[in-house]
Amino acid sequence: MLFKIVTVYRCLGVLVLIFALNAAAAQLPDTVGFPSRDGNTQLVGYLFKPQGAGPFPAVVMLHGRAGPYSTRAKGVYAAHTLTQRHQAWGEFWAERGYLALHVDSFGPRGYAQGFPIHSYQDRPAEVSEQTVRPLDAYGALEYLRGRGDVIADRVGVQGWSNGAMTLLASLADTAPGIAQPTPQSGFRAALALYPGCRVQEKQNYRPYAPLLMLLASEDKEVSPVVCQRLAQQTLARGAELEVVVYAGAQHSFDDPGSRKQANDANRAAMSDARIRAERFFAQHLLK
Q: How far is CA 222 from CA 41, 179, 277, in A?
């Protein structure tokens, strides 16, 4: 099947509270530094580690246009001011035996607060998700492969919105930061939540690794229809790709904050996305 339109309604009234309690009780990730492959930038990353000595499969996490930090950070950009969403996903992977590295691409370049909605045309070139941020993704991959507690050829990548656009660019045969990429030399699998797909739609695009895209039918920031067209094109080129469109869900449906989770479709989409994400990475990173 090319893509699925999914309507998921469940009894999830306590889900937001559970997420909030888990995030509050979670141990803060370690703060690490490593170079981007741009040759200039020393990146900051937040490392969520499983129990035990490893080695573990790993996940590189790429934030969206708002950056990795809470709007309540008040100028303090550190592990304890990560957004609830990024903290929750990092803990989610660590609890399942993955070492997860969340990469801050914006802070080291002077844009820790991120960018407002619909500001795409005004963002500086030094944070481009097409030409710069893939270099951060491959810098993170290189860092993880240098650790003794990571299985070097079992690293996946997850991105949200602008980070998911970075992910798509990183999976191209001509991606910055890697030559002639394969699942063995690059990322083993990729999970993209609500990316924009217009750039790749205009290219002869074929991701080199298996790709799962989770989209929202009522997305007002990016077009799920464009991503569905891209899926048709890339599947025709032999890509390993699955697209799920959540009926009624909005952009950032997996944000566990009360505002997003007041929407039943968002709550259901978040729950289903976690199930699909766990199954997808288990299929490609644990075998």
A: 28, 29, 21
Q: What is the pLDDT of residues 190-240, one digit of tens each?
A: 999 999 999 999 999 999 999 999 999 999 999 999 999 999 999 999 999
Task: Inform me whether the pLDDT recorded for 25 exceeds 50.
Answer: no
* C-alpha span between 283 and 234 (Å, rounded): 21
* Strands of the chain, DSSP E: 3-6, 30-35, 42-48, 56-62, 99-104, 150-160, 190-193, 211-216, 241-246
Backbone angles phi, psi at 231, to 5 degrees: -60, -45
Q: What's 210's domain CATH number?
A: 3.40.50.1820
DSSP labels, 211-272:
EEEEEETT-SSS-HHHHHHHHHHHHHTT--EEEEEETT--TTTT--SHHHHTSHHHHHHHHH
Helix (H, G, I), strand (E, B) or coil at 64: coil
Q: What is the domain range of residue 15?
A: 3-285
Phi, psi of 64 (to 5 degrees): -90, -165
Q: What is the mean pLDDT of residues 276-287?
A: 96
